[in-house]
Amino acid sequence: xxxxxxxxxxxxxxxxxxxxxxxxxxxxxxxxxxxxxxxxxxxxxxxxxxxxxxxxxxxxxxxxxxxxxxxxxxxxxxxxxxxxxxxxxxxxxxxxxxxxxxxxxxxxxxxxxxxxxxxxxxxxxxxxxxxxxxxxxxxxxxxxxxxxxxxxxxxxxxxxxxxxxxxxxxxxxxxxxxxxxxxxxxxxxxxxxxxxxxxxxxxxxxxxxxxxxxxxxxxxxxxxxxxxxxxxxxxxxxxxxxxxxxxxxxxxxxxxxxxxxxxxxxxxxxxxxxxxxxxxxxxxxxxxxxxxxxxxxxxxxxxxxxxxxxxxxxxxxxxxxxxxxxxx
Length: 328
Ligand code: SF4
Ligand code: SF4
Ligand code: SF4
Hints:
alpha/beta, Rossmann fold, five-stranded parallel β-sheet, about 30% helix, binds iron/sulfur cluster
């Protein structure tokens, strides 16, 4: 037991799908557990509480994964605690590394988000429009508190130092197995690196025209996935469907393309890219045939930021500048 790596996994503001990706390793996880002693992984694997993590000495944990973005005061506090207790911290998944889908909420005010979540949905019965409050007195005697909503979403490395990054929403189980094996064996790249094969989605996509000696031609049309059913054998981008495979890490083995869906970039940018959405724009714009096709693209996608920053708004230059009024 003494030689085992003390391992922790914390869910911050995400959906827990990344934790499921790890649990989905099944027998590979069992093999990895021979080398790991799980000291904190609540509530998915172990019945441990936040106070158990808070009570650990600083640097007690050898390796910690955190999934999810920073979205409230509880996330902020627990990620800071986890960082203090851990020698190596891995931001795991699109939310933790880039902000994830929830970060698109930063394109709206808090009032818009809360009204949508707690008032306007068809399944909500809330005629007085009550929002959850950080503090309230229940039945006149119970002082209840909830985490407060932060003014904007943040990635883990916008709050604390991160040692390694793993992309994906969630990370693909094959690649997770390789990453866990690399970590357990100590076979790691320099601090601050993404754990990735270094291949783009296009590199592992069976539709890549280069694999069948076809030419990539300028794209002369724009079709949204709701408008048509793509040819299942041909490159989606060549057919006019926006696909971010050329600029996205391909550790998912082109999962979406295998089921006839274009890549939306959940794997994160290829190493060295500063602003993923800007790189997506460059990749798509440079593949279009002419100005008329570019105008069609802009007409068909009425919110380009939500397209190109689908998973990466918090990490983007735009996301860092865009701050909804915290008082709104
Ligand atoms: S990256 Fe995706 S699967 Fe993971 S926590 Fe975020 S939304 Fe869930
Ligand atoms: S652009 Fe999309 S469909 Fe075409 S080869 Fe790349 S990943 Fe595959
Ligand atoms: S194809 Fe793109 S969007 Fe789909 S799982 Fe892979 S990286 Fe994510």
